[in-house]
Amino acid sequence: MPMPQVPFDDRGLAYGDGVFETVLLRDGVPVLWDYHLARLEQGCRRLNIPLPTSQQLAQVWQSPPAAALEVLKLILTRGSGGRGYALPDHPEPRLIFRRTPFVTNGQRWQHGVCVRLCHLRLGHQPLLAGIKHLNRLENVLARQEWQESHIAEGLLADQSGEMVEATSMNLFWSTEGRLLTPRVNRCGVAGTLRAALLANGVIEEEGLTVSELPQVERLWVGNSVQGVWPVCELLDTQGGLIATWPVLAGPDPLQREAHRLLGYPSVFLASESK
Question: InterPro entries from the xrefs (predicted)?
């Protein structure tokens, strides 16, 4: 399906004035759809953008699937108009979307991944924290920090040295058997898989500093499309190895619960070191 043309004066293009969702479709049905709708509604309230109707939102996915697994990218902008940053008197939001077939990365589920710390520190803006707004330049800059194919993700801390997230995934860890995730009340994205795990009592929110990160029992990154990747190697901002975690010989506790929510298999991780 071709992407519709966006007018030159669209506020999402000009200012990042909008929100988006990236949704896993299984046999044409959105996974964790209620959590995506809740975040979309919150983003629209924060930015004061009229929310599309339920019928309009349903039309973006209620068509025959092209593959068993697809990714739906949904973008909602405030539309066109207004003078400079001033809002249009009568905004007409623009909803565009695209569906593409998706293939999971079972190797990363099973054998784990290498991640690195990013130089970039996230700025604090509580009014935008948690929502998936269209201005993601911090993430774009952070992703430029490495090109090595064996590095799966970059981890981001905020300006005070608290861990927040990965560039396109949420961050999880375990301490004394507890499954934890950083708070995202000052910056970062509140992922829908993260929200579902919190709602089901699987994880708790807690603070974690950059210096504490290498000492955690286990580390994971995950989102509602890719599932959960165990972290086996952590690199510093220069690419030097600062921590390793052995792959598990049995079921991964976080992956088991997360993949149940997504309809993915919970794999047994290889017992040998990476």
Answer: Aminodeoxychorismate_lyase_IV, Aminotrans_IV, Aminotransferase-like, BCAT-like_C, BCAT-like_N, Class-IV_PLP-Dep_Aminotrnsfr
Tell me if residue 174 falls in helix, strand or coil. strand
CA atoms within 13 A on the CB side of 168: 12
On whether the CB atoms of residues 7 and 80 are closer than 8 A, the answer is yes
DSSP 123: P
Domain C-terminal end among 71, 101, 131: 101
Domain count within the chain: 2
pLDDT tens-digit readout, 29-85: 999 999 999 999 999 999 999 999 999 999 888 888 999 999 999 999 999 998 899
Tokens coding 264:
């993915």
Residue ranges of alpha helices (H) inside the chain are 11-15, 33-47, 54-59, 106-111, 137-143, 192-199, 253-262
% of the chain surpassing 90 pLDDT: 88
Q: Is the pLDDT of residue 270 over 60?
A: no
Are both 138 and 66 inside the same structural domain? no
State the pLDDT at residue 266: 80
Evaluate whether residue 2 is within a structural domain.
Answer: no
Cβ atoms of residues 245 and 231 within 8 Å: yes
pTM: 0.94
Residue pair 115/234 in contact by the 8 Å Cβ criterion:
yes
The pair of structure tokens assigned to 46 is 């924060």
